[in-house]
Amino acid sequence: MSKDNAVKIRFHSGENIPLEMHKVRVVQKLHLPPIERRLEALHEGGFNTFRLTTQDVFLDMLTDSGTNAMSDMQLSAMMHADDAYAGSQSFFRLQRAAEEVLKKKYFLPVHQGRAAENVLAKAYIKKKGDLIPMNYHFTTALAHITQYGGRIVELLYDEAYNIASSHPFKGNMQVEKLEAVIRAHGRDNIPFIRMEASTNLIGGQPFSLQNLRDVRQIADRYGLRVVLDASLLGENAWLILQREPAFAHATMAEVIAEITGLADIVYFSARKLSSSRGGGICTNDLTIYRELEALIPLFEGFLTYGGISVREIEAMAVGLYETLDETMICQSPQFIAYLVHALTAKGVPMVTPPGVLGAHVDAMSMCAHIPQTQYPAGALAAAFYLISGVRGMERGSISNQRDEDGNETYADMELLRLAIPRRVFTLSQIKYVEDRLVWLYENRRRIGGLKFVYEPPVLRFFMGGLAPVSDWPEQLIAQFKADFGDSR
Ligand SMILES: Cc1ncc(COP(=O)(O)O)c(C=O)c1O
Hints:
Number of helices: 20
Largest sheet: 5 strands, mixed
Shape: globular
Distance between the termini: 50 Å
Bound molecules: pyridoxal-5'-phosphate
CATH superfamily of the largest domain: Type I PLP-dependent aspartate aminotransferase-like (Major domain)
Helix content: 40-55%
Structural class: alpha/beta
Number of strands: 12
Oligomer: single chain
Low-confidence stretches: none
């Protein structure tokens, strides 16, 4: 296959500028509320950026989930959706896309990624203490595994925890440890091995194709299944093309096919993978398909819609094909790299190398004066919203769940994630983010900690309520006004 959808454009100035290979045809107006309103909004939302309403947000960098820009082709496909409870033609178009792109012939639709995680945990975690080895957890994957009595073990290499690194594949699984874990725990107590493409919680860091081949080899040695979380598969495959020399001349289609071919089960959030809504589970193994099949009508909907609207199913099918287009898939990681390099050059501590889905600020370093008990990443997310109107997401201890005895489990990393969904923001908006973050870095000692005032028992980061431990937000506003005058 040719690489005719990969385009290299150099600037005469020598600057490395990520040039958009799309034009904007539909726009949404934005507002930047005054800083006093932003403080009120923080108090109303418990200093938790999930609880802000978009009316109070200027640039929404909470997530790329369900917020990637759709293409004109996706929107037009939505118009010819076939409404039917059973046997919809839209479903068969999606099934064909999954077969052609992911190379799996059996497809089970689910309403989003975590629904797939629920189905897989319910089907395969049979007894308390069953262990799932993985490169790293994702919040919802962990919650579903523990809900059914399972446990996890994370097997990243030590380098993955090194925030400022040049290692190209920090999402790799330590295969020597994998084998030791299987031997120590017993293969019968391991329902599957989970590999997450572009490991979300450590800064969107990819695994290499060689690493996945090595994991597969060990899985085969012990007769274990490999489950791939493919929510961020497109970007992981693109980074393999950029960073793994053996694949420098391969195509997206080839790399994606090899990755999915190494997994027995592929599941994904379509909110991420195909810039639509929905999710899916795919396999080539009829036994696996039969084991999961009955759970879809029970939790999701009939087998040809799985809780997804037929319009979204059409968008999902087109989105899967578009994942193979390098000019589309490179846009978010290139903007991320641009922002990470610009911020690093000004001293702001960032996760490197730049990964996917967003730029990640190291709050543990930037807010070293805030103890982990006062949630530095949550505090930084609140402070950054306050001074910029930009909504990021805490990915640190607030996003962790308490252990079985109710004790806090502090996160390995305290990160502020600034998501850069595909084809949503312009470069001047990215420059605004850079400008305000550099200012906040220079004023970082004015940021104070947070404490919980309302803590839900499950996935507390979504709806939890926090409060500042002092009047630091007011002090930050005073400095902002002194430096920026009447600018918002
Ligand atoms: C790696 C990964 N897995 C699973 C999910 C869950 O998907 P969803 O939000 O569609 O439930 C996400 C969502 O962000 C994710 O990033």
